[in-house]
């Protein structure tokens, strides 16, 4: 039997927000709050909406360490990444894990699936375990997540990109800068009709920043407008990138080179060009981003942007250990940089 919320009431009092406070504000019983937060189906949609609204308003975090351990931080650091199958993030995780292990810390990995709402849910859930710190990918979060991370008294590390207003420690690189520099290198090599290929523009915000850098480079060099941009809504795969070959063949007079938002797209397009007899780089030059191991294994080898992913994870973990040890960081922001790797595909 489901429960329908009653009229909302204001919460009074102060101190740690409890499940009873959420129940009172949302107008449902504590057991209903528990069911909603555990993902149970035994709550009406109206009750679920009321509970989640109260959770956000009160900044409630379930206390998973209840029973005498609530004041003790577990030696486990959550790391939130947008994809577990992506070698980019597995390299970062590996770097962090190996450094943490040397200092008696373990990790708990959360996959946000490039979803801001999923990130909010995982953040709230992991904080309920009273971790000593939390690591999170990127600098774009829901307002509820920002409020939650701003209110806690543990270190917050934002990874992968340089953030304009970081919540704490920030370790990453400028994706717009990398996009600008790669495009500039292509222009210097004599390519002017350059396209940009990416995926999931509503979720992969770092790819959008690379595109912005690409477009700025075109404008600064006096080339056409915003360039030729193609985004697909699906995640990056070799098969998806192969579809761009059709677009190239239909617009070959407008496209002489392609800057791909990642190496998966670049390699997928390169292989499809080989299958169709499109010479790379003779007819179409291809560049990628990340410098995955496959970039050196394909023929021709792939021009790309090298990102020090393992080192990024190690540096973030090192800075966190310093803070947890009571040391003061020289700077909470660390730019890991990037390097343009020119190979035979361009």
TrEMBL record:
<keyword id="KW-0804">Transcription</keyword>
<feature type="domain" description="HTH lacI-type">
    <location>
        <begin position="17"/>
        <end position="71"/>
    </location>
</feature>
<dbReference type="Pfam" id="PF00356">
    <property type="entry name" value="LacI"/>
</dbReference>
<dbReference type="Pfam" id="PF13377">
    <property type="entry name" value="Peripla_BP_3"/>
</dbReference>
<dbReference type="InterPro" id="IPR046335">
    <property type="entry name" value="LacI/GalR-like_sensor"/>
</dbReference>
<dbReference type="InterPro" id="IPR000843">
    <property type="entry name" value="HTH_LacI"/>
</dbReference>
<keyword id="KW-0805">Transcription regulation</keyword>
<dbReference type="InterPro" id="IPR010982">
    <property type="entry name" value="Lambda_DNA-bd_dom_sf"/>
</dbReference>
<dbReference type="GO" id="GO:0000976">
    <property type="term" value="F:transcription cis-regulatory region binding"/>
</dbReference>
<protein>
    <submittedName>
        <fullName>Transcriptional regulator</fullName>
    </submittedName>
</protein>
<keyword id="KW-0238">DNA-binding</keyword>
<dbReference type="InterPro" id="IPR028082">
    <property type="entry name" value="Peripla_BP_I"/>
</dbReference>
<dbReference type="GO" id="GO:0003700">
    <property type="term" value="F:DNA-binding transcription factor activity"/>
</dbReference>
């Amino acid at each position: 039997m489901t429960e329908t919320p009653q009229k909302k009431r204001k919460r009074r009092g102060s101190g740690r927000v409890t499940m009873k406070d959420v129940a009172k504000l949302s107008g449902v019983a504590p057991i209903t709050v528990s069911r909603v937060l555990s993902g149970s189906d035994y709550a009406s949609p109206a009750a679920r909406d009321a509970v989640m609204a109260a959770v956000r308003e009160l900044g409630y975090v379930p206390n998973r360490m209840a029973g005498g351990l609530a004041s003790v931080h577990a030696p486990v650091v959550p790391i939130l990444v947008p994809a577990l199958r992506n070698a980019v993030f597995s390299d970062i995780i590996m770097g962090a894990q190996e450094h943490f292990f040397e200092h008696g810390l373990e990790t708990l990995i959360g996959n946000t699936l490039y979803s801001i709402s999923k990130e909010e849910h995982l953040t709230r859930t992991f904080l309920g375990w009273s971790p000593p710190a939390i690591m999170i990918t990127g600098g774009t979060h829901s307002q509820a997540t920002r409020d939650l991370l701003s209110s806690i008294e543990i270190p917050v590390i934002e990874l992968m990109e340089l953030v304009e207003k970081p919540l704490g420690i920030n370790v990453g690189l400028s994706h717009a800068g990398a996009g600008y520099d790669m495009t500039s290198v292509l222009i210097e090599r004599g390519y002017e009709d350059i396209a940009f290929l990416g995926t999931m523009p509503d979720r992969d915000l770092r790819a959008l920043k690379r595109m912005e850098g690409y477009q700025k480079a075109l404008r600064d060099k006096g080339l056409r407008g915003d360039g030729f941009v193609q985004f697909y809504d699906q995640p990056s795969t070799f098969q998806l990138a192969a579809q761009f070959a059709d677009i190239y063949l239909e617009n070959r007079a407008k496209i002489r080179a392609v800057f791909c938002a990642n190496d998966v797209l670049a390699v997928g397009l390169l292989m499809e060009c080989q299958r169709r007899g499109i010479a790379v780089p003779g007819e179409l030059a291809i560049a990628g981003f990340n410098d995955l191991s496959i970039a050196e294994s394909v023929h021709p080898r792939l021009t790309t942007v090298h990102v020090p992913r393992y080192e990024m994870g190690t540096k973030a973990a090192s800075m966190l250990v310093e803070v947890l040890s009571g040391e003061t960081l020289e700077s909470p922001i660390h730019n890991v940089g990037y390097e343009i790797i020119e190979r035979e595909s361009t």
